[in-house]
Amino acid sequence: YFISIPPTTGGNGTYTVPNPDQVARLRKIGSNFHAMAEIRVTAWQEWLGSNPGKTWFDAGVEARRRMATAGYDPARGDTWAVNEFPLEILSDAQVQANMRELVRGLATGPGGSPVQGLVYAVTPEQATSDVGSYAEQLKRFLEIEPFWQEMSRSVRFWSQEVFADAKSCCVGGATAEERSTRLNDYLQHPLAIAAASADSASTARSFLHRTDTPLANAAWSWTTAFGFTAIPAEQMGRFVAAQIGAIRSFQETRGADAGGFGFAWAPLRPDGLGETAFVRQSGEILTRMAKSIDAALRQGDPAAACGPGGSWCACSVPGAAFTNAWVGS
């Protein structure tokens, strides 16, 4: 398990300092849990503005130096996680060059001690009505050979931020298969587009096949930024389980190349809900997530993620409707 740990502020107020306290807490959980230092693109852009003459490569090397100071240890499996490649990277050559140099610096590190890490990539919301332009941009982006060559050298996990939307999933009366199919239309669209791309995208296709780690949605309770998740905690738990079942059903078709997956966790207390109730209900969502993952992996059956009779995944949200935008994207 890899846990992305947000940074703290440095002396100049930018979030460019890896958090040492959380690393120490993570060590106590066990050796199967690894810390990822969150490297915020916007914060390091500010750092560059305050350090004339420095490059994005220099920023990556400096971030690795600060990680070591804070106790992040690659020998224990710790690494870095870039948050986040902006959507503009699809079409902006300068952004592509900047991000390529950032991950090269992060992977190289001080003294040339190579460590591959993770990249989060911004994605349009699931509720987007028309994704045709985005899909075309993504196809062209996949053909930019120098960019994907660098990703292949420096990145271990490519994590598309596919924050599913409860109103686009939790359709009352839908079958588990219907929910799973519509979820995977969105959650797995980068692989689908890569698979259908021209031979000129072969490097990107091979890289994504090896590293794809979709970042699904456990951020409760939001009306925007993470899609719509302003729903009761019980329904949120079912929504999370439905995503696990969908992801594992897709990954089972890939056999040994199944890859991993992750969840965004950013609890936001709903208006009118007391602190004690909020903590308890947030814990219930986490428990549902843990049990669903455990059941799916331990039993080797994606359907197990949904519990007895599929009840764990049977989310229902008023006004929810499946969207066709991502079908065949």
Key words describing this protein structure:
329 residues, 11 helices, alpha/beta, two-stranded parallel sheet, 5-stranded parallel beta sheet
Structural summary, described in words:
The protein is of the alpha/beta class and 329 residues long. The protein has eleven helices and seven strands. It has helices at 20-27, 41-50, 56-70, 93-108, 132-141, 145-154, 176-187, 189-195, 202-211, 233-252, 275-299, and strands spanning 2-5, 34-40, 79-85, 117-121, 155-160, 215-217, 262-264. The strands form two sheets. The protein has a five-stranded parallel beta sheet with strand order 1-2-3-4-5. It is globular. The model has no long low-confidence stretch (mean pLDDT 95).
What is the makeup of the main sheet? 5 strands, parallel
* Contiguous uncertain segments of 5+ residues: none
Q: Number of DSSP helices?
A: 11
Radius of gyration: 20 Å
Q: What's the oligomerization state?
A: single chain
Strand content: 5-15%
Straight-line distance between termini: 30 Å
Write out the strand line-up for the largest beta sheet, numbering strands in chain order.
1-2-3-4-5
Short summary:
By secondary structure, the protein is an alpha/beta fold. It has helices spanning 20-27, 41-50, 56-70, 93-108, 132-141, 145-154, 176-187, 189-195, 202-211, 233-252, 275-299; strands spanning 2-5, 34-40, 79-85, 117-121, 155-160, 215-217, 262-264.
